[in-house]
Specification:
48% of the residues lie in helices and 10% in strands. With 454 residues, the protein is of the alpha/beta class. The protein folds into four domains: 10-96, 434 Repressor (Amino-terminal Domain) (Orthogonal Bundle); 112-294, Rossmann fold (3-Layer(aba) Sandwich), CATH 3.40.50; 304-361, no CATH class; 368-453, Arc Repressor Mutant, subunit A. A six-stranded parallel beta sheet has the order 3-5-6-7-4-8, sandwiched between helices. Strands 9-11-10 form a three-stranded antiparallel beta sheet. Helix 9 (252-262) links the parallel strand 6 and strand 7. Helix 16 (379-391) packs across helix 18. The longest helix is centred in the C-terminal third of the chain and has 17 residues, at 437-453. It is elongated and about 90 Å long. The structure holds adenosine-5'-triphosphate and magnesium ion. Magnesium ion (MG) binds next to helix 6. The site of adenosine-5'-triphosphate has 19 residues, from helix 6 and helix 13.
Length: 454
């Protein structure tokens, strides 16, 4: 019996869009925005096609979706109709025959990641809970604005890079932007838009006014799923007495942060900051898609890794624990200590522990790290830090307020406690507030320096 030739699949004669054609069409769709700021749906495209090309009622939503995803071959007439719907001309370079016999060809979307000057991570210890929480907030709960808070060196930027790189494939665009240079809001918007334009290969002119720039950013954040990481937010916060406010010339950051947290977009903005901006306090809430993660130090096992990396240390576990607890597991401080201890002949911590007992365990680099945060404090904050430092590691509000006589001083103490919390210099633990041993030491050293200078 003669074998019949295989019946050719109708779709084998079809075409798919090239990368150029796909980009052309997707750009046109992204520009067609409804009143809610969302791009036109496939159903609406079908309505428009029916309106424009009489006789194409047969072009179903599934075919339209196939064209936009570039996944399956379709006939040239369908391609022409969809292009025409957006007033685009279908050129030869816009389509091609599927290259293999298999017609279901998946075109991998191109992910556009711009990590700019984000720190490189060579080693990363622990933080399992934090990573899990961040991923849940960003990917599952689709939070719009997430802030990592904590004192200098605690690992905010490192955690942002670690998690960001692990989840980057879930986003169309990833942008890392540091606020280290204290650029005013208009300039930072321009910078971010420039990155969007160049990564998305667009030919768009950036508008002049702040509001227009913000609307342009809104379109990107709505039409694409973006992860925008803004590092070092405290650099654009006021150094005046009241913590968390934006100084003159920077007030529009407040508008920008509100827009990030409240506008109905599809993206996530991840901030890192030593101080909590007032706007974030107002936006944060259980139901809102705005979350904050207060970062604490690494635990004992994680902290030990820094020292194991740099050499063999022979001291007992309890000695290690004392050392790591003293520095509250601050990774930057532990890193500094590990490299200094490596220089000691014995590579031991006994010498360091002896120094604590004599109250002079501060390495210069640790001092300057703490100084960069202390120098931003108001006078009442400095006084309260000193008062807390001489009175011990934990305290309750009741202990503190009980000895104060005037209502005015009680209000001031409450306000000061709140701002120290906002600066991550004290932590809340149930009914009590906790001040880290290294902070106690620094505050006491500072007050000695000031009194001996007078
Ligand atoms: N989980 C970690 N594992 C290993 N190293 C870490 C970890 N977290 C932080 N580090 C290291 O500690 C140092 C300080 O971390 P990082 O710069 O992220 O702190 P930060 O909180 O962003 O500080 P700043 O407020 O100064 O910006 C870096 O050198 C980093 O490599
Ligand atoms: Mg940082």
């Amino acid at each position: 019996m003669t074998k019949l030739p295989n019946k050719r699949n109708k779709r084998d004669r079809g075409l798919i869009l090239t990368e150029e054609g796909l980009r052309k069409l997707q750009d046109a769709r992204n520009k067609t925005i409804n009143e809610k700021g969302n791009r036109i749906s496939y159903e609406k495209i079908q309505d428009k096609i029916i309106e424009k090309s009489a006789g194409r009622e047969d072009l179903c939503v599934t075919t339209i979706r196939k064209i936009f995803t570039g996944s399956t071959a379709v006939d040239i007439g369908s391609l022409e109709c969809v292009f025409d719907c957006f007033d685009l001309e279908l050129c030869e370079s816009d389509y091609t025959k599927p290259s293999s016999e298999k017609t279901d060809i998946k075109i991998q979307p191109t992910f556009l990641h711009n990590w700019g000057k984000a720190p490189e991570i060579s080693v990363f210890y622990g933080r399992l809970q934090e990573q899990k929480k961040l991923k849940r907030w960003i990917l599952k709960e689709k939070c719009r604005l997430v802030t990592l808070l904590g004192i200098g060196g605690i690992g905010k930027s490192t955690l942002a890079v670690k998690v960001g790189k692990e989840i980057q494939s879930e986003f169309d665009v990833v942008i890392w932007q540091s606020l280290q240079n204290q650029l005013p809001p208009e300039e930072i918007l321009t910078n971010i838009l420039k990155i969007f334009i160049s990564t998305l290969k667009k030919h768009t002119v950036i508008p002049e006014s702040f509001d227009e720039k913000q609307s342009m950013l809104m379109k990107y954040l709505t039409n694409k799923r973006c992860l925008l990481i803004l590092d070092d937010v405290e650099k654009i916060l006021s150094t005046d007495d009241q913590v968390g406010l934006f100084p003159t010339g920077y007030e529009r950051y407040s508008q920008l942060f509100k827009f990030f947290g409240e506008a109905d977009h599809n993206s996530c903005i991840l901030l890192t900051s030593r101080e909590k901006p007032i706007d974030i306090i107002h936006l944060e809430g259980e139901a809102a898609k705005v979350k904050c993660l207060q970062m604490r130090g690494l635990n004992f096992t994680e902290g030990c890794q820094f020292f194991k990396q740099t050499g063999q240390f022979t001291d007992s576990e309890q000695e290690w624990e004392t050392l790591i607890e003293h520095y509250a597991g601050n990774p930057l401080i532990l890193k500094m200590l590990a490299s200094r201890m490596k220089q000691l002949p014995n590579s031991g911590i006994i010498e360091f522990l002896d120094c604590f007992k004599q109250g002079s365990s501060m390495l210069e680099e640790i001092c300057s790290l703490l100084e960069s945060q202390f120098q931003r404090l108001s006078l009442p904050e400095k006084e309260l830090m000193y008062c807390l430092a001489v009175n011990g590691k934990t305290f309750s509000l009741k202990d503190l307020v009980e000895n104060l006589v005037t209502p005015c001083s009680k209000v001031l103490v409450l306000k000061t406690i709140l701002s120290l919390l906002q600066r991550s210099l004290i932590e809340k633990n149930g009914e009590h507030f906790v001040i880290q041993p290294v902070m106690i030491e620094y505050a006491i050293n500072q007050s000695i320096d000031v009194s001996s200078a007078n």
